[in-house]
Amino acid sequence: VQLVESGGGLVQPGGSLRLSCTASGFIVSASHMSWYRQSPGKGRELVAGITSPGDSTVYVSSVKGRFTISRDNAKNTVYLQMNGLKFEDAAVYYCKARIFRLGQFYDYWGQGTQVTVSS
C-alpha cells in the first residue's frame, strides 16, 4: 500500500490549490479516504473525508464551502480542491486511507505535502 501526495505549494490568500493523492496496492473507490493537516505546534486535524460505499463527504467546519474532496476511480486518486485559501490553512496536508482487510480496518498515510499561504 502506498499513498503519494502532490500539489502543495505557495499560494496567496484567496488563491486555490488542488492536492492529489495517488494510491497503489488497494482500490481507492472501495476505501474510506481522508485528508488531514498539521501545522507547527498543533495536532493532526481531519480536514475532509469521503466514505465507501456511498461517497458521503465530511468537512471540518473551517473549510466548508471552500474545500472539496473527490476521487477519480479510473486514476485511483483522491483530490482536495482548496479555494479561498486563508493564512490559517497553511499546513502539511496528509492523505489517509482506511482499508478493510481480513475483518478489520487498517490506516495508511502518505508522506504529506506542504501548503504555504503567504502574501
Strand and helix layout:
Layout: E1 2-6, E2 9-11, E3 17-24, E4 32-38, E5 45-50, E6 57-59, E7 67-72, E8 77-82, E9 91-101, E10 104-109, E11 113-117
Give the termini distance in whole angstroms.
Answer: 37 Å
The count of DSSP E runs of length 2 or more, i.e. the number of strands, is 11
Low-confidence stretches: none
Instruction: Tell me the overall shape.
Output: globular
SSE sequence, one letter per element: EEEEEEEEEEE
**Biggest β-sheet description:** 7 strands, mixed
Radius of gyration: 14 Å
Strand content bin = over 45%
Structural class by helix and strand composition: mainly beta
- Provide the helix percentage: under 10%
Average predicted confidence as pLDDT: 96
Q: Enumerate how many helices there are, as a single number.
A: 0
Explained architecture:
It is a single chain. This protein is an all-beta fold and 119 residues long. The chain is 0% helix and 55% strand. It has strands at residues 2-6, 9-11, 17-24, 32-38, 45-50, 57-59, 67-72, 77-82, 91-101, 104-109, 113-117. The strands form two sheets. Strands 2, 4, 5, 6, 9, 10 and 11 form a seven-stranded mixed β-sheet that branches. A four-stranded antiparallel β-sheet has the order 1-3-8-7, with no helix packed on it. β7 and β8 form a beta hairpin. The mean pLDDT is 96.
Please name the defining characteristics of this protein.
7-stranded mixed sheet; 11 strands; 4-stranded antiparallel sheet; 119 residues; mainly beta
Summarize the structure.
This protein has 119 residues and is mainly beta. Helix content is 0%, strand content 55%.
